[in-house]
Amino acid sequence: MANEILNTLLPFAGWSDDRAKDLTITGGTDPLLPTSFRITDTSTAALGAVGLAVSDLWESRTGRRQEVTVDARRATASLRSGKYMHMDDSHVSTERNTVMGVYPTKDGRWSYLHCNFPNHRAAALSVLGVSEDRDAVTKAVAMWNAQDLEEAIIAAKGAGGMVRTMEEWAKHPQAAAIGSLPLMEIVKIGEAPPEALPEGNRPLSGVRVLDLTRVLAGPTCARTLAEHGSDVMKITAGHLPNIGYQEYDTGHGKLNAQLDLRDDSALETLRGLVRQTDVFSQGYRPGTLGGRGLSPEELAELRPGIVYISLCAFSHEGPWASRRGFDTVVQTVSGITSRQGDLFPGATPGPQFYPVSAIDYLTGYLMAFGGMVALNKRVHEGGSWLVRISLAQVGRWLVSQGEIPESQLLNVPAEFTPEEVASWSTVSDTPMGKLRHLGPVLGLSETATRWARPSVPLGHHDPVWPERSK
């Protein structure tokens, strides 16, 4: 099944179906964890596509392709890599905020409140008119109809949504807009001469990446590029909320600097970085950066030959194009949590999230795949390139692979063995302590995947590019 799913990705790189033969998959197939959605086969396919794109870049650099291997069990575990972290031998907590979750509504439906970020939590609580107390939130939500609450929270600049079935989502105008789009787009947005890869002994050696993304999907893209030798600088700002453990999980391989883009001097510093970069990855809602002179077309003028990777929640089309969203929100509104709750009831009644952050991590892997395809196009064709994708498009791709028959979902283990997790893990010396975490999944015959830098605190580095890595 993973190879069949991989075949849906090959056309984005201009590959024929025969290219799938260059990938070796081990470790089994779905279901490895308790969900009917094909999280194993899609993660294996997405990572396999990344590996084949790495091989193409290596061939552009050396004239040789590499053998690529993916272990399906490791690929699946990578979809919740934050769960397996330990700092100085203590487990790193990934607990969500206590009022974040799904609540019954007045009209017999369910409403999801996304409350991990303080600003989104404040928005939900202001709409409900209660303090940060789960019992109070439960009573307040029960006074609302689910769709009315969804719209009120979005209007208050919060995040969340009404739980829909898959059948209901299929009839929604935003689902129709997403259905009119491909999974992702890799389009030329400007002219520039062909540009050879910088010198170096890894596939992405010397390739500079600016990572202006947050949470999981976008940071996973940049982390994946760093696995293969790129110099990645994450840019954030002190006033932006963050979840600490996610920075540990996605910070491997990255420099980390802060720039408040509300300030003109900081914006000019970023422009200076862009002039010397190769890949610009951003996760703002469509049009947000255009007002700051950072749209794809503007950066292609500033730095001809740039690869601009653009992520949002619900795509650039449709009535929800500007809506805030996360993996869990997309699961909620598109029918995934409804279906998961039907097949795998939780300790309390109602919809359930699947056991990994599949949409987030899959999106990150696919962003990296698209970025590497675009880099290789730049080598051979020249040009500036836009890679465009959304969480909702990836969620649709995941669901479109079909579900595992219910007869095969009995007695599925909820966890991998401690021995497996230990064998997949590595230890990094970070400024915060010794961090034990999952290592990269991909196997390559000539260039071992690794991160040259450990995770660091936000703002740990100055916003200045070092010498390009070799």
Structural description of this entry:
- With 470 residues, the chain is an alpha/beta fold.
- The chain is built from 17 helices and 17 strands.
- The chain has helices at 2-9, 39-62, 72-77, 118-128, 134-141, 146-155, 166-170, 173-179, 217-227, 244-250, 264-275, 296-302, 327-334, 336-343, 358-381, 391-400, 418-424, and strands at 23-26, 68-71, 86-87, 90-91, 101-104, 110-113, 160-162, 185-190, 208-212, 231-236, 254-258, 279-282, 307-312, 384-390, 425-430, 433-438, 443-444.
- The chain is globular, with a radius of gyration of 21 Å.
- The protein starts with a helix and ends in a 26-residue tail after the last strand.
- The mean pLDDT is 94.
